[in-house]
């Protein structure tokens, strides 16, 4: 059986994740699908890999709440809904996403996937397996925190560095953990959120918007390059940019 999911993301944006016939998730009654997730507050469920229970069949999200997590939404977020509500197969999710995090602390002075999430993952996940969906929803704070620090997130050289670092992580997972299937979500247009509409003037919103567009262009380019140069990779590329734009 293939792991497949249907997620209604941010109201009316249907997202179908169906793995290719060449690289299916093969599961049995005793073998669930696994998702390993990295991200920021849009994905954070307050999962603590040092506190039992760890994610398992009977507790698919692990601590602190097996079925919903502790999310900023006050209920389900997109990942918890994907795990426990809107899928067709038994799914267990290790979610290392943390509020405020960025891709690389060397580029933006915040905790990051590289400094915090990836080391935590390595402490609890030792398997080399192709039956894992590796999920990334990151980039919002790389842009927002850079702007808040008085710098220019739309600087092409800065964005190049962020997404080069992003795919260094992907590369490591490919070789060290046999990662072959990736869910890469792009950056939504945060300039249309109530917060940014209230605090940014038109020129500032234009700067952040340009950064979002540039980030998503680089993510798409890097993903295509990676697929073309790495054997056996499946990519799922949904567009929260579109769905968040619909909502706001």
Can you describe what's shown?
This protein has 248 residues and is α/β, with parallel strands linked by helices. It has one domain (4-247): Rossmann fold, CATH 3.40.50. Helices cover 37% and strands 15% of the residues. It is built from seven helices and seven strands. The strands form two sheets. It has a five-stranded parallel sheet with strand order 4-3-5-6-7, sandwiched between helices. Strands 1-2 form a two-stranded antiparallel sheet. β3, α1 and β4 form a beta-alpha-beta unit. The N and C termini lie far apart (38 Å).
Can you summarize this structure?
With 248 residues, the protein is α/β, with parallel strands linked by helices. The protein has 7 helices and 7 strands; from the N terminus they run βββαβαβααβααβα.
Fraction of residues in H or I helices: 25-40%
Shape: globular
Q: What is the N-to-C succession of helices and strands?
A: EEEHEHEHHEHHEH
Major sheet, described briefly? Answer: 5 strands, parallel
The helix count comes to: 7
Write the SSE topology.
Blueprint: E1 4-9, E2 13-18, E3 33-39, H1 78-84, E4 91-95, H2 113-124, E5 132-137, H3 140-148, H4 156-177, E6 181-185, H5 194-199, H6 202-229, E7 234-236, H7 240-247
Parallel strand pairs: 3-4, 3-5, 5-6, 6-7
Antiparallel strand pairs: 1-2
